[in-house]
Amino acid sequence: MSLIRESDSEATIEGVRLGDLAERFGTPTLIYSRAEINARVTAFASAFGALDHLPCFAVKANNNLSILSLMATRGMGFDVVSGNELERVLRARGDASKVVFSGVGKLAGELDFALCSGVLSINVESSDEFELALERAKLAGIQAPLSVRINPDIRVSTHPYIATGEKTTKFGVSAEQAAQLLLRAHASKHARAVGLACHLGSQMTDAEPLLRACSLLLSVVDELQTRGVELEFIDLGGGFGVRYNNEREFELGGYARAILGQIEGRGLKLVTEPGRFLIANAGILLTRIIRTKTNDAQRFAIVDAAMNDLIRPSLYQAWHRVSRASLPSDEASEGPWEIVGPICETADTLASGRELAIAKDDLLCIDSCGAYVSVLSSNYNARNRVAEVLVDGDSARLIRRRECLNDQLALETPYLA
Ligand code: LLP
């Protein structure tokens, strides 16, 4: 999927030329389109129109404060997995009462913070965590709103690193254990049993496994109801796949209708946790070719972005579309090109075998970099993390300045012996 309009003149994002953005902010830079984020949020929310539905943006996909603030102004809830993610949501003026707190390793301090902030739910993933949440709620004199994440043992077709619904993974508990924990929550004066959750994996293109998980959750809802426990919601997680290349995008409308068929008339709210779907295709990584290099086997375009800025190709063998963002120069030569960064690893290949007419100093645009790009970046090779820019119509503004070496050194120089 490309955000970029290529005309006879130059590539633009909304009303702004990528060449101008490179001049103004330098490269490499992550650039997001406000209009595209808004369009994705609207498409997501309207697909679930007929349901009592709370979409909670998965903050792990992109935790930039300005992005979170945009999500908050659109009425979104948030799915957080750490105290720091919760703090980011609150600083972006997100509504704590629309926050679900997921994750297998919550610490006592994080539970305290979530409880005092008034989150919608703590999605418990083990009996140990359940005990801790009760203990912390008792100490704080607060009733903990508890959901339990079920591991439904359902396989989905996606990269193995991001499949989370099988029982060989660390996530959730069995349906039987979830029912027991929620019965205990109901019986405790320090907790409220509010929901059941699951999350099967990320970048899924097929709704069928999610519908099976939904049936399983509803069977537990029914069992609990016969024992006097009325839950407020089921949370079916995120994972809605987008197009990077020729994949089929997850078909939300059919999914929402099927869920409606299953939960209609039960008085249950539906919570979802979309991350990638809302932002992956609303961002690009703008990079410049430092030089080209050819040997007997390959032609390399060495760019100023690297695997520390965009880890997805090396970590998940992910494919991102690459296009030229400046006019072809007279020196341009045809590929296939290996698009590589300056880092000292062969894994530092951002794209392989690309047919492009390019030359030294050209600007390139790497698509679908809105989700799981900035959040997964690092300082490997002592590289500074990139700048982030939000485009809105004809204007663009910085939403995170480029790091400088002093930002990195500040954490170490005071301790230099
Ligand atoms: N909820 C939970 C509990 C999750 O673990 C995740 C993602 C989501 C929601 C959001 O999933 P989404 O709608 O974004 O697919 N770094 C990987 C993706 C890791 C996803 C981890 N969990 C990548 O770049 O593909």
List key phrases describing it.
417 residues, alpha/beta, Lyase, Ornithine Decarboxylase, Chain A, domain 1, TIM Barrel, 2 domains, 9-stranded mixed beta sheet, 8-stranded parallel beta barrel, 12 helices, binds ligand LLP
Uncertain runs with pLDDT below 50, 5 residues or more?
Answer: none
Return the CATH architecture of the largest domain.
Alpha-Beta Barrel
Helix and strand content put the structural class at alpha/beta
CATH topology of the largest domain: the name is TIM Barrel
Could you tell me how far the N terminus lies from the C terminus, measured between alpha carbons in angstroms?
51 Å
Short description:
The relative contact order is 0.16. The chain is of the alpha/beta class.
Explain how this protein is built.
The protein has 12 helices and 19 strands. It has 417 residues and is an alpha/beta fold. The chain folds into 2 domains: 12-32 and 280-409, Lyase, Ornithine Decarboxylase, Chain A, domain 1 (Beta Barrel); 34-278, TIM Barrel, CATH 3.20.20. Strands 3, 12, 13, 14, 15, 16, 17, 18 and 19 form a 9-stranded mixed beta sheet that branches. An 8-stranded parallel barrel has the order 4-5-6-7-8-9-10-11, surrounded by 5 helices. Helix 5 crosses helix 6, helix 7 crosses helix 8 and helix 8 (208-226) packs parallel to helix 9 (252-263). The longest helix is centred in the middle third of the chain and has 19 residues, at 208-226. The structure holds ligand LLP. Ligand LLP binds at residues 58, 60-61, 79, 102, 162, 164, 199, 202-203, 237-240, 273-277, 312, 316, 372.
